[in-house]
Amino acid sequence: MIVVVGTPAWRPVEPAGPAGLACGIAIAAASHGASVELVGRTGDDPAGDALLIALAHAGVGHVALLRDPARPTPLMEPAPEADEPDVLADEAEDGDVADAVASTATGPRLEAADVDLGLRYLTAFAVIVVTDDALDAALAVATDAAAFAGAHLVVLVREGSDSPDIPADATVLAAPRADPDGAFAASVGSYAAGLDAGRPPDEAFRAALAAGWEPSVA
User: Fold this and answer.
1) Containing structural domain, residue 59
2) Which member of 35, 83, 137, 170 has the greatest number of CB atoms within 10 A?
3) What's the CA gap between 5 and 137, in Å, rounded?
4) pLDDT of residue 178
5) Per residue in 152-203, pLDDT tens?
6) Domains of the chain: total
7) For position 63, which CATH number holds?
C-alpha cells in the first residue's frame, strides 16, 4: 500500500475534479494498480463531498482523510489569461500562478496528530509520500511510521528551498513551483507504485521518467 500525505484540493471549473499535488500523486499511483490511501484534511462541504467521490472513482482510498466542518475545502483555480489581471495572480509567488490554490489560508490545516491518527488506521504500507505542503505537520510522524513499518519514505521539498532534516535513506525530490500538466505528480506516483511493487529505487525512478517529467533530486 502507498500512503500519500498532503493537502487535497478541488478544481471547480471544467473539467472539475481532484486537484493539488497530493491528489495528483495518489491518482497516478492508483492508475498503476497500486493500493493507495490519502491522509489529509478537507472541508465538510459540497466540494469536499465531490472530492471524496472523485477520489473513490479514481481508486484512491480516503478512510484517513479527515473532514473539517470549520474550514472550506481548498479550491484550485486555473491560471489567469496573460491579458487578464487577477488578484490571486498578483498575490502569488512567481511561477506559482498555474498551481495557485484559492482559500489556502482559510482551508483545513493538517496537524501532526491528524497524520498520526491516519497512519494508525493504515497499519500495512510499503511507501509513504509526504508532499511539500505537509512537511511541517507530517515529516516527523511519517519518518517514525516508515521506520517502524519498514516502508520507503518519499519526501517532496519545494524547489530552491532549504531541505528539512530528512532521514538519509529517504528519497528526497524537489517539487516544482508549478505542475500545470501534472507530469511531476504522475512521475512521483509512478515511482511510488514501482517501490510498492518491490522494484529497487533506481529501477522505479527510471521507469517514472516515462511519465514525462524528470524530477530533480533535492
Assistant:
1) 2-217
2) 137
3) 10
4) 84
5) 999 999 877 766 789 999 999 988 888 888 899 999 999 999 999 999 999 9
6) 1
7) 3.40.1190.20
